[in-house]
Amino acid sequence: MEGKLIWWSPSPSWLMLSTLCLLLCAAQLQTSSATVAAAGTVPIPAGNVVPSAGVKLTSGKDEAMIDNGIIQLTLTNPGGFVRALKYQGVENVLETHEPDDFGGYFDVSWDHPGGEGKTEQVVGTKFTVITETEDQVELSFSSSWAASPKDLVPLNVDKRFIVQKGVSGFYWYVIVERLKGWPDVNMDQHRMVFRPKITMFKYMAVSDEIQKMMPAYKDRETGEKLAYPEAVLLTTAIEPEFKDQVDDKYQYSMEIKDHKLKGWISDDPKIGFWVISPSEEYIAGGPNKPELTCHCGPICLAMFTSVHYSGLDMVTEYRNGEPWKKVFGPVMVYLNSIVPSNDHAALWQDAKAQMEKEVQNWPYNFVASADYLPAAKRGSVSGQLLVDDKVLSPTPKEACTAYVGLALPGTTEVAFQFDVKGYQFWTQTDPKGNEVKLGPVTYKAPRNGPTLWEIGIPDRSAAEFFVPDPDPKFVNKFFVDKPNDKYRQYGLWLRYPELYPKSDLVFDIGVSNYSKDWFFAHVLRYV
Ligand SMILES: *[C@@H]1O[C@H](CO)[C@@H](O)[C@H](O)[C@H]1NC(C)=O
C-alpha cells in the first residue's frame, strides 16, 4: 500500500499519531491476504455475463425505478426509501413491511439536549433527477428542515442514489447539513440500514473468519432476554443447532479498518447481498473503533457515527448555532451470484474483489454533488515516518505498518477517536519501507530513560491479556474454537467478580504474567 494521504487539515503534527500503531496490525493483514490467496474458485458475477444495457429511469406518482438490465432499484418518491431491489429474477431481495420497515433507509438517532432520544427514519420531501444518461442515473430525495414540522431532526438531508451501466448494484450517499443559528441538538447515530429478505438470506459474512449460518429473528422473540435487550438466549430455535446459544449483535462488531465488506448470502437462489464501504473518511472514530456490521434479522448496516463502545463522548453535539455539513458515503450495495451454482466462499471472494476495486476507485469521479470532492479537488500528503527512541535504537527507525491519519485538530493527540463532525483520512505505512515523497517525519518518543516495566503491548488491542472462558450457559458455539475471538462471548464481565470476589486483582511486577493475571477489560463490579 502506498503511503499516500489525502490532505484535509493543515496539521502535520497530527502525523505523530501514527506511532501509536503496531506491528500486530501487520501480522493481521498478512493473515487476511494469505486467506485470499488460498481460496480456490473464481466466481463469475452474473453482472459480467449479462450484456450491459443502458440505464433507464421510470418515475411514477409515488416511486422512481432505475433499471440497468442487471438490477432494478425501486425507491419511494419523494421519501427516498429503498422499496425493492430486483436481481436474477427475484422481484425483491429486500424485506419490506411498509410503512415501518423499508428494505433500505437512512436514520438519525437524536434529540434536543435533555431529551430522551429518538430514532428518525429521514423522509425525503423533494425528488430531483440529478443525472440521467445511458451510462448513469443519479437521483436526489431531499428534505429541508425549515419547511418541516419542528419535531424532526434539525438537518437538511439529501439522499442520493446512483445506478451505473454494467454495475451489479447501486451507490448511495447522504449529505446532511445544519445551518448557522439552528437549534441545539445531540445526535448519537447516523447510519444506513438494509433488510435482506428473511426467507432467503440465512448465511452472514463479516470477515474472512466470521461467516456463519444465523438463527432466525423469530428465535430471538421466543428466547430469554439477557442483561440488555440485544443479547438473547435462544431457548427455542427453528434450527436445533442454535438452541441454548446466545445471540447478540455486538459479537459481530469489527474495527472500522476492517469494515469495508459485509453481507448475507441466500442459498436458494444462490445470491450474495453486500454492503461495501470503500473508505473510512466519513466514519467517525478512527481505524480501531469497533462498529456493528450485520446481525440477526437479517440486517446489514453502514454505520457513520455512533456511541457504540464509547458512550457519550461520541454524541455529535451542536450548541450556539454551530453549522455543520458532512457527506456520508457513497456506500455500494453489491449483488452477486455464481454461474454455475457454487459455495459461500466463492461469493465472498467475488464480493471481496469488488470491494478492492471500489477502494482502488476511491475517491469516486462519478458523484454529482459538489459537496463530495473528487480526486482532482483533493490534495495529498506523503512522507516517511520515523520513530526516534534512543533507548531502542541509536538512530531513528522506520515506523513499519503504522497507521497514519489526518483529522480535525483536537486538544489532545487522541481527539480523532471522539471526533464525529469532521472527516478522517487514514493509510498504513508500507511494510517494505518503499521510497516516499515528502521527506521524513520523525516521531520523538517521550523518554526520560529506559522503561522500568510495562504490562502488555501498547497497541490498542487487549488480545494479549487474560480472556476468561464464557459461562457454559451463555455461549455462542461459533466462537468456541477461535481463541482470537473469545473476547466476543457474552457475559465475560461477570467472570471478573467470580475470579476476584473480594477485591480487585493485584499485579506484581516481575512476578505476574499479563497473559494470565491481567483481565482483558476494565469491567464494572456487579453489586
Ligand atoms: C505467561 O503465560 C502464558 C500463558 O500461560 C505463557 O505462554 C507464557 O510463557 C508466560 N510468560 C512468562 C514470561 O512466563
TrEMBL record:
Residues 451-524 form the Rhamnogalacturonan lyase domain. The keyword Signal applies. It comes from the Eukaryota. The lineage of its organism: Eukaryota, Viridiplantae, Streptophyta, Embryophyta, Tracheophyta. This is Rhamnogalacturonan lyase domain-containing protein. Keywords: Signal. InterPro entries: Galactose-bd-like_sf, GH-type_carb-bd, Polysacch_Lyase_4, RG-lyase_II, RG-lyase_III, Rhamnogal_lyase. CDD domains: RGL4_M (cd10316), RGL4_N (cd10320). GO terms for molecular function: carbohydrate binding. Residues 1-34 form the signal peptide.
